[in-house]
Write a structure and sequence with these properties.
This protein is α+β, with helices and mostly antiparallel strands. The chain has 21 helices and 23 strands. β21 and β22 form a beta hairpin. It is globular, with a radius of gyration of 28 Å. It starts with a helix and ends with a strand.
């Protein structure tokens, strides 16, 4: 600890330290534990913040970074966990060999960014998860934990953080338990993370005492929306700005950001101003006041201030607006920015430009360090191989038949699915890394390389004799971005989150004349998700919104059907009586399945969405019944005035 930092720590009262530790947080669990340790004064507080090295880190990380600075200022010992095992377990996002390179990339980029905003990185302790998570003691505790946790509780704990599918990998259910054990093995008093971690934190508070360990406190920051209005994600390039993006890239992404005039909710641009720009500039001012101006030295990797030269005193954020539109704007508080935006004195285009300039300024020293550091560049290429380097060569089949089981049949191999091929590759790489003989190909892979001609596949045994509503994949979605179609006045171009690992889908809907764009943004909807993608005016739509048409016809109005209250993106929906049946992966257009089922979709007199038809085991001549469209949270419904409507 530097002398000035030590002096500041000594000057702060217990209340001042606690206020500093907890300021700007969305929620604190166990604050009394923190106060008790501060009050006793026997030792410094200890905490950890963890990150799994999967996708490339982005500017959303600025939010926890400013809090790490607060913790250090309050005299807390801070550990940064580079959770490589967690990254590997998170639905196989990357093989362990690639994760190891990403650990080094994360370490470098995090240190460089922290220096850029004036955080004393020499006081941080970086820890790699595998350095202790592979020990005998840790694994024994993991087994003990598994013996007392149900599948339901494990899935629920990780639902907001780990990518889960209808039939999740076991690894995704181990993830929350490891995160709980980390608190014990890192010997901390509290864990810090985003509010999306809350279920894991509560899970840890419940499970650690059962293992004989102390319950820790948990601090949570709010989640900054991405540029599309949804959660900023390292795996969704369109929702975030990479730490190494160029000013041109940054300006382009901000220009396309979701930022409706006068609207604050789910406005990722305004949220960035509130949660990043002002906290960073406040940190800069506090460093100067606390005698730590050396942390702001540009020659040592610090960024420049975000107030324009010649700005009024106390300005923290300036927007360089052209004189013809009123000239530059200067702000000392976020509240003033928001008020101008809500009152429409600050146009979205000017706000976007100001934020783009601010981000470019903050990231300038990061880009300079990267461009001048050959080792940094090499690690980045190893961690995230370029598309050109990673692209497979044009081969009809693997050059060595021994590796055929590591490739799908489409790639010239013998694996039945991409998951089988990925698992085979991972097992091969793990054996090589451990200095062991790789496992031999499975017998079926060898047989596939023989000269015996393949037998034709038998027809599916369970193919229904008639189209059934269960063949249609109905799911809850959330519109995270929306704008007019560039070439069709009647169409909206939407980005809809259906809770899928690959991110939101592009969806087109002809609702421009029926529903204002501001009422569509952020809305929960019902999507038909297994229609064959169809192009409309040059853009493919990868799903369809289920909408209600007024019983008098379209002139009476068209509105999207709403899912049950409390639904989340990705929740499955079904027709009553057809529960538990898996929909087709993609509907065959030639069989007219949706076209046959859709005319029987309707709303009841109480606006409940339904389908009128016979049950799955009934004869086609049976009396049709109204069967509600529902999910685990309840029944789907149409807006007021859409009683007895048709659905399409």
């Amino acid at each position: 600890m530097s002398s000035s930092a030590a002096a500041l720590d000594a000057q702060l009262s217990i209340e001042a330290k606690y206020d500093l530790i907890t300021r700007d947080l969305q929620e604190v669990l166990g604050g009394d534990k923190i106060k008790d340790i501060l009050r006793k004064g026997e030792r410094p507080l200890r905490c950890y913040w963890g990150t799994a090295p999967t996708g490339r880190p982005h500017i959303g990380y600025f939010v926890p970074f400013t809090k790490l600075a607060d913790f250090l200022k309050a005299g807390t010992e801070v550990k940064v966990l580079l959770a490589d095992i967690h990254a590997f377990l998170d639905n196989m996002k990357a093989p362990i060999t690639l994760v190891r390179h990403r650990v080094e990339y994360y370490r470098l980029i995090i240190r460089t960014v922290l220096k850029a905003i004036g955080v004393p990185v020499e006081r941080l302790n970086f820890v790699v998860g595998s350095s202790y998570q592979l020990t005998e003691a840790y694994n024994m505790d993991q087994y003990r934990l598994c013996a007392m946790v149900t599948e339901h509780d494990a899935k629920r704990a990780g639902a907001e953080v780990v990518k889960q599918v209808s039939s999740p990998l076991l690894s995704s259910m181990l993830y929350p338990g490891l995160q709980a054990l980390d608190e014990q093995y890192l010997d901390v008093d509290f864990q810090f993370g985003g509010v999306d971690q809350r279920k894991i934190f509560v899970y840890a508070e419940d499970i650690l005492p059962k293992l004989g360990y102390a319950k820790r406190a948990h601090l949570m920051n709010s989640m900054v929306p991405g540029l599309k209005g949804s959660k900023m994600s390292a795996s969704d390039a369109g929702s975030k700005v990479d730490f190494l993006d160029t000013p041109k890239d940054i300006a382009k992404k901000l220009n396309e950001a979701h930022c409706i005039e006068g609207q604050v909710e789910e406005n990722g641009v305004l949220a960035f101003v509130k949660n990043v720009i002002f906290p960073i500039e406040r940190l800069r001012e506090e460093n100067i006041a606390g005698g730590n101006a050396d942390l702001l030295d540009a020659s040592k990797g610090a960024s420049k201030r975000l107030a324009a030269d010649g700005a009024p005193p106390n300005t923290l954020f300036s927007i360089n607006r052209p004189d013809k539109f009123g000239g530059g704007l200067h702000y000392s508080t976020y509240e003033a920015v928001e008020k101008d935006f809500v009152d429409r004195r600050l146009h979205p285009a000017d706000l976007k430009q100001g934020v783009a300039d601010a981000i470019s300024t903050l990231l300038e020293p990061v880009r300079k360090e990267f461009e001048s550091n050959a080792d940094f560049q090499k690690i980045a290429e190893l961690a995230y191989p370029s598309e050109k380097a990673a692209a497979p060569k044009k081969v009809v089949k693997p050059k060595n038949p021994r590796f055929a089981h590591m490739f799908t049949k489409e790639e010239g191999g013998t694996a039945e699915t991409a998951e089988d091929a990925q698992a085979a590759k991972a097992a091969h790489e793990a054996a090589i890394a451990a200095g062991q003989e790789p496992p031999p190909p499975p017998k079926q892979a060898k047989a596939a390389t023989s000269s015996t001609p393949k037998q034709p596949k038998a027809a599916p045994k369970n193919e229904p004799s008639r189209p059934l509503p269960s063949q249609i994949d109905l799911r809850v979605g959330k519109i995270v971005d929306i704008k007019p179609h560039p070439d069709a006045d009647s169409l909206y171009l939407e980005s809809v989150d259906f809770g899928e690992p690959d991110g939101p889908r592009t969806v087109l809907s002809g609702l421009v004349k029926y529903v204002p764009i501001e009422k569509m943004s952020g809305r929960l909807v019902v999507g038909v998700c297994n229609l064959k993608p169809a192009a409309m005016r040059g853009i493919k739509s990868h799903a369809m919104l289920l909408c209600a048409t007024h019983k008098s016809g379209k002139d009476g109005g068209v509105e999207p059907v709403a899912p049950p209250e409390g639904s989340q993106p990705g929740d499955k929906l079904w027709v009553e009586g057809y529960e538990g049946r898996e929909p087709d992966a993609q509907l065959n257009p030639k069989k007219k399945i949706f076209e046959t089922i859709q005319p029987a979709y309707l709303t009841t007199e109480s606006r409940e969405a339904a389908w009128k038809g016979v049950g799955p085991d009934e004869d086609e001549t049976a009396e049709p019944k109204v069967r509600l469209i529902k999910g685990e949270k309840g029944v789907c419904f149409a807006p007021a005035g859409f009683e007895g409507a048709g659905l399409s």
